[in-house]
């Protein structure tokens, strides 16, 4: 299961776009060669005077824009980079290459580009061969024995590597030396010998580490850098990246490579080849979705069986979530089937020789370092490995489909759907119709984490289309500026499209997932469901798109990222499923498709399928995020345009330092609702969903100042009303009043269709379906200097009002 930390979800909430001084875009670019470099526990670099290093001639690699640095040991000895400067992670000057991280110790994720990158630096310095000393004479923790995989790798590529505790004595026979964080300082004599070695053409590779718990030896490394007169110094800091990382913020990933250095060519590394199929032996079965295998070279790997999730066994029940298992609410029951799934996997795979392959849409390894793979095996002794374990486990009722972006997702889902329908194995006790209803109550308060605002193509969205605003205390950062009344959601009924600025159903904000406070008292799930029904003219269940990189993006969601909303929907009789191929998936039986900020673009075939779906009465809910990069926002806005909607995700982030969750301004709360929209009662299915919908009257326009003399041109003084609901609205018994109580009663039997407008003129005339007449003569209704239009329903309750 995916367990994103809260910190990860706020990845870019407070980050600003760094600027690298005096550096052209031609130089600072991803190389298209090696994979991203993972800089485990890395420090950064400074200039020779201890300030920010911005000289691109000595910087080979920067952290991504989302990275920050801090004083990890709180000793007050780190230089913190401003938000306007990129953080250097690798530097090079005068035959010396310096790394902020060890990069290639045993246990490194070899699917990254680390070993290829470091070997490239050796080749650039040494020409592809030579003798390299590994210094162990200064109390180093990182001795050569901790780099056995890399040692074998470079020796296979032309180098001889030898550990030494007598560096000065051995320099004469070496071409290069590696020095990892030295606990003991170099003597003046040793520094002099090292300087002579470099002056004679020898190369030095220096590896530091972050100062977390003060494990670095920055001063000793800087003694070397100073004596050699290098243009950089090591920083006594820790670099973190909550967005681009290898599973934790202290493992920054980066593609920010200075291609003026010849360090980044793709080459054969230590990782598995994603395009190959490996024949391996299953050595042990951990559970239904994890096995250990041995390769032909004797190496072993743990395989996380891709695309599926089996229940946790009873002994590990604390890691299980009933929210993920449709119609099942018993942890004990899931624990039993966790054991059953293990037995199933043992029967199918134990001792077998299997084919291990990978998915084009998924990484080879997950954030825990496990290989993500497909297993094909011989189940019947035929000698052919044509049985697909991943899919079979789902088909046979021992696993559910995992909501990631893998390419087989939709076919796996079809197998799960059949197993659930047939009550196969674990699904015997699945009873969604009787699932416990949770959190279904009137909407009193909403929170919009990491939210952007919503705009239209031309700028502001009309008030008549906005059900929720930020509080007056909220502010915007960037994008189209509203100044006040900032819309957080808007509807386009003509296109059956809504735009919401925030991933407001992200389970990251659940206390059960580790969030600091309990957010179950907010009604985000109710609001979203009512919004779906408000726009949808059909019944059925709800789909979320997972085929455009959402699972791996901190600003977007798959259905595995919204399991608590899934359980809410289940409790009110609606299923919440995922599709990764909307252009081939049968959408005809669904009521809504939710699309969160897509990393990749939608094809024309996908847009056409969604357009047809919306034209047939389905709702499309577009969900943005204030932390999404501009490219992803553009993908969402391009989809909105393709659906013939003028709604757009703004280029801003909305924050509120007064009204928020957990005293965090990037998680605004709001009660600024337009209650003329039927979106704020407990869900009862009455707002739409094929039941005809319900109407809602809004004030679309006020024209108070008639041309010429108001009293002689009363029909040019008017108010335009619009039915913003999804069904017809009978206005019998409804009335309109100004601030002093002048009253107009709608005609008996007058009905306004969904989306239709009617103009109420102050003068006299013959009523039609589009024009009504107050019947006044000699005096106007609406004050030119300001007034309030009040609309009361047939019970005398104020339905809506608007001041000008």
List descriptors.
13 helices, 4 domains, 8-stranded mixed β-sheet, OB fold (Dihydrolipoamide Acetyltransferase, E2P), 804 residues, alpha+beta, single chain
Description:
The protein is an alpha+beta fold and 804 residues long. It has four domains: 36-254, no CATH class; 278-429, OB fold (Dihydrolipoamide Acetyltransferase, E2P) (Beta Barrel), CATH 2.40.50; 446-662, no CATH class; 697-803, Immunoglobulin-like. Helices cover 17% and strands 24% of the residues. The protein has 13 helices and 46 strands. The protein has an eight-stranded mixed β-sheet. The protein has a seven-stranded mixed β-sheet with strand order 3-5-6-10-9-7-8. It has a five-stranded mixed β-barrel with strand order 14-15-16-19-18.
Strand content: 15-25%
Strand order of the largest sheet: 29-28-30-31-27-26-24-36
Based on DSSP secondary structure assignment, what is the total number of beta strands?
46
Helix-strand category: alpha+beta
Mean pLDDT: 92
Question: Termini distance?
Answer: 52 Å
The Cα radius of gyration reads 32 Å
Overall 3D form: globular
What's the tally of helices?
Answer: 13
Number of individual domains: 4
Give unreliable regions as ranges: 1-31
* Largest sheet: number of strands, sense, barrel closure: 8 strands, mixed
Q: Which percent range fits the helix content? A: 10-25%
Question: Concise description?
Answer:
This protein is of the alpha+beta class.
């Amino acid at each position: 299961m995916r367990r994103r930390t809260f910190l990860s979800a706020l990845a870019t909430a407070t980050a600003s776009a760094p600027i690298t001084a005096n550096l052209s875009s031609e130089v600072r670019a991803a190389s298209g060669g090696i994979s991203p470099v993972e800089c485990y526990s890395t420090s950064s670099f400074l200039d020779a005077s201890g300030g920010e290093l911005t000289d691109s001639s000595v910087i080979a690699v920067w952290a991504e824009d989302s990275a920050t640095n801090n004083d990890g040991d709180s000793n007050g000895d780190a230089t913190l980079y401003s938000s306007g400067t990129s953080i250097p992670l690798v530097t090079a000057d005068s035959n010396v290459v310096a790394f902020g991280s060890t990069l290639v110790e045993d246990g490194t994720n070899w699917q990254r580009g680390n070993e290829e990158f470091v070997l490239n630096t050796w080749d650039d310095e040494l020409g592809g061969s030579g003798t390299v000393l590994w210094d162990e004479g200064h109390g180093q923790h990182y001795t050569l024995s901790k780099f056995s995989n890399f040692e074998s790798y470079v020796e296979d590529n032309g180098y001889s590597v030898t550990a030494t505790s007598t560096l000065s004595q051995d320099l004469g026979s070496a071409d290069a030396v590696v020095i990892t964080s030295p606990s003991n300082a170099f003597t003046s004599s040793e520094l002099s010998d090292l300087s002579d070695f470099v002056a004679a053409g020898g190369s030095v590779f220096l590896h530091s580490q972050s100062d977390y718990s003060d494990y670095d030896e920055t001063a000793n490394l800087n003694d070397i850098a100073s004596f050699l007169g290098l243009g950089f110094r090591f920083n006594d800091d820790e670099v973190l990246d909550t967005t681009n990382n290898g599973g934790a913020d202290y493992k920054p990933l980066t593609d920010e490579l200075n291609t003026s250095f010849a360090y980044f060519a793709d080459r054969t590394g230590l990782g598995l080849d994603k395009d190959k199929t490996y024949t391996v032996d299953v050595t042990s079965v951990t559970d239904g979705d994890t096995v250990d295998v041995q390769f032909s070279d004797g190496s072993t790997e743990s395989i996380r069986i891709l695309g599926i999730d089996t229940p946790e066994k009873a002994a590990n029940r604390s890691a299980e979530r009933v929210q993920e298992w449709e119609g099942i609410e018993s942890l004990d029951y899931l624990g039993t089937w966790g054991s059953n799934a293990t037995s199933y996997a043992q029967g199918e795979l134990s001792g077998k020789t299997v084919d291990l392959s990978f998915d084009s849409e998924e990484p080879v390894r997950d954030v825990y370092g496990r290989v993500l793979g497909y297993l094909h095996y011989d189940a019947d002794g035929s000698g052919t490995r044509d049985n697909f374990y991943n899919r079979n486990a789902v088909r046979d009722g021992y696993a559910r489909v995992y909501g990631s972006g893998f390419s087989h997702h939709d076919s796996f889902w079809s197998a799960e759907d059949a197993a659930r329908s047939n009550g196969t194995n674990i699904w015997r006790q699945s009873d969604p119709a009787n699932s416990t209803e949770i959190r279904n109550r009137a909407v009193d308060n909403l929170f919009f984490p990491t939210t952007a605002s919503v705009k239209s193509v031309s700028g502001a969205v009309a008030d008549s289309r906005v059900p929720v605003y930020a509080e007056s205390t909220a502010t915007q950062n960037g994008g189209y500026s509203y100044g006040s009344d900032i819309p957080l959601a808007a509807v386009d009924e003509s296109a059956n499209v809504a735009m919401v600025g925030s991933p407001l159903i992200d389970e990251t904000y659940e206390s059960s997932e580790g969030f600091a406070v309990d957010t179950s008292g907010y009604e985000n799930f109710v609001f979203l469901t009512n919004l779906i029904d408000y726009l949808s003219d059909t019944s059925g269940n709800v789909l979320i798109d997972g085929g455009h990189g959402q699972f791996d993006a901190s600003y977007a969601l798959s259905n595995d990222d919204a399991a608590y909303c899934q359980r809410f929907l289940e409790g009110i009789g609606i299923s919440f499923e995922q599709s990764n191929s909307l252009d081939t998936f049968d959408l005809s039986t669904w009521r809504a498709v939710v699309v969160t900020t897509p990393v990749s673009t939608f094809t024309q075939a996908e847009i056409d399928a969604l357009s047809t779906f919306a034209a047939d009465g389905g709702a499309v809910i577009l969900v943005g995020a204030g932390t999404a990069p501009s490219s992803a926002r553009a993908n969402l806005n391009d989809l909105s345009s393709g659906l013939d909607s003028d709604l757009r995700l703004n280029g801003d982030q909305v924050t509120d330092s007064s009204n928020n969750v957990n005293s965090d301004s990037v998680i605004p709360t709001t009660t600024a609702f337009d209650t003329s929209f039927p979106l704020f009662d407990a869900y009862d299915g009455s707002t739409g969903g094929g039941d005809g919908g319900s109407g809602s009257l809004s004030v679309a326009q006020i024209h108070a100042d008639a041309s010429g003399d108001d009293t002689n041109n009363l029909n040019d003084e008017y108010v335009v009303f619009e039915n913003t609901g999804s069904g017809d609205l009978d206005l019998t018994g409804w009335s309109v009043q100004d601030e002093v109580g002048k009253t107009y009663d709608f005609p008996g039997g007058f009905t306004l269709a969904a989306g239709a407008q009617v103009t109420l003129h102050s003068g006299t005339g013959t009523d039609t379906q589009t024009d009504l007449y107050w019947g006044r003569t000699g005096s106007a209704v609406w004050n030119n200097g300001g007034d309030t239009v009040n609309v009361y329903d047939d019970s005398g309750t104020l339905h809506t009002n608007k001041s000008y």
